[in-house]
Design goal:
The structure is a single chain. The chain is α+β, with helices and mostly antiparallel strands and about 400 residues long. It folds into four domains: about 50 residues, no CATH class; about 100 residues, 2-Layer Sandwich (Beta-Lactamase); about 80 residues; about 160 residues, Heat Shock Protein 90, CATH 3.30.565.10. It is built from nine helices and 14 strands. The strands form four sheets. The protein has a five-stranded antiparallel beta sheet. A five-stranded mixed beta sheet has the order 9-11-12-14-13, with helices on one face. It has a two-stranded antiparallel sheet with strand order 1-2.
Length: about 400
């Protein structure tokens, strides 16, 4: 079968009288075949786009007006295609991601294709998380005409990730809660053990009872860390500023007898966060130094002052190449911890490096663990200054 195109045209003589009809026939079989193939191809690709599992979007070059959206994306956004086409894209993008999209649209103009996560807003104002794959569109003269984007729905995956994160937070909080309870049991056992000696007059004020109490303080300083972590947001970072205030308050309650007029001054930067590797040794160090001041700094005095300061140094970077340090040339935040009192002071004969007291030995061991430095000042009372760095994560 042949397809033809017929053209009829009148033929006129010199007097303007029609004398005949011109009949022209052209074979258009090949053109018809091409047109049919093109129509079939367009229909096939339209069906692919309309039935795709990903949302598809085409926008203009200047105002970023939506010129095409497939049914899948319209369903994802809970609109009809007619409600979307003709509108700018900005009405469908969350406020947080608008600056990111504006920056990435400039990349389209430069001919750059890219993929990134994007939060859209549905018709009911609920979030729609997507993975967007965007590609620029150019005409035959390489003029930028707009962009075509394919969007995959990630909302269920995001919800699952959030649920898993909440489970992990609850799990960590439960672990910290159990550790805290176990440490409190240990403290109670030490207290019960000490009861065996309290009724014996010869050991009422002996080193035995002091040792039990000091051990209890050390255990409780660690238990407080786990209590703070349990009450926090479930991550492994401790708000050390809040913890330090609770620790000092507990110590003052323990040693209140004989220190009724001793005051505590705490000068801390707000919201300093440390992980367990920093918080535990630092908490024990402060426990030792503050309890040491409460026990020995004010003999025969009615009033006293203990000060704790914790702050960042102005220089935010530190290179620590001290002996035995395995963290060479690392960059971190530098901190200074100061624990001081205006008490009787420490004897000039006292030597930090050759101290025979368990508390000071423990402090030195823990400062080494922090790769820190310890300085003792005796100007007005006693001041321990500890410098340490927290490595950037």
């Amino acid at each position: 079968m042949i397809d033809v195109s017929i053209t009829l045209s009148p033929v006129f003589d010199s007097h303007g009288k029609m004398t005949a009809i011109s009949f022209i026939s052209r074979d258009i079989t090949e053109r018809k075949r091409v047109e049919e193939k093109l129509r079939e191809s367009e229909e096939k690709y339209r069906n692919i786009v309309d039935t795709a599992n990903e949302g598809i979007l085409i926008t203009t070059e200047n105002e970023n007006i939506i010129t095409y959206v497939n049914k899948k994306l319209a369903d994802m956004l809970r609109y009809t295609p007619e409600e979307i086409i003709g509108r700018p894209i900005w009405g469908f993008i969350s406020e947080e991601y608008k600056p990111i999209v504006k920056k990435n649209l400039e990349n389209r103009r430069q001919g750059i294709s890219e993929s990134y996560e994007l939060e859209l807003i549905r018709k009911d104002n609920s979030p729609l998380w997507t993975l967007l794959n965007a590609k620029p569109i150019f005409d035959n003269d390489d003029k930028y005409m707009g962009a075509m984007s394919m969007l995959t729905d990630l909302t269920k995956r995001k919800e699952a990730e959030e649920a898993l994160a909440n489970i992990e937070i609850a799990r960590k909080k439960e672990i910290h809660h159990r550790i805290k309870n176990n440490l409190q049991v240990v403290s109670s056992l030490l207290d019960l053990q000490a009861e065996m000696f309290r009724d014996r007059g010869c050991v009422e004020d002996s080193e035995v009872l002091k040792a039990f109490r000091e051990s209890q303080d050390r255990v409780m300083s660690i238990a407080l860390i786990h209590e703070e972590l349990h009450e926090g947001k479930g991550n492994d970072a401790l708000n050390f500023s809040l913890y330090l205030k609770r620790l000092a308050k507990n110590l003052f309650q323990t040693y209140r007898l004989g220190n009724a007029d001793t005051r505590l001054n705490i000068d801390l930067e707000e919201d300093i966060f440390f992980d367990m590797d920093i918080a535990v040794p630092l908490g024990i160090i402060i426990n030792e130094l503050v309890s040491n001041s409460l026990k020995y700094a004010f003999p025969g005095r009615e009033k006293g002052l203990i000060q704790i300061k914790l702050c960042r140094e102005e220089s935010g970077e530190r290179t620590n190449n001290g002996p035995g340090n395995n963290k060479e040339n690392y960059k971190g935040t530098n901190f200074i911890l100061s624990v001081s009192d205006n008490g009787a002071g420490i004897s000039e004969s006292f030597n930090l490096e050759n101290s025979n007291t368990l508390g000071i030995q423990l402090v030195e061991i823990l400062i080494d663990q922090l790769d820190g430095e310890l300085e003792l000042k005796r100007d007005a009372g006693t001041e321990f200054v500890i410098r340490f760095a927290v490595q950037k994560q």
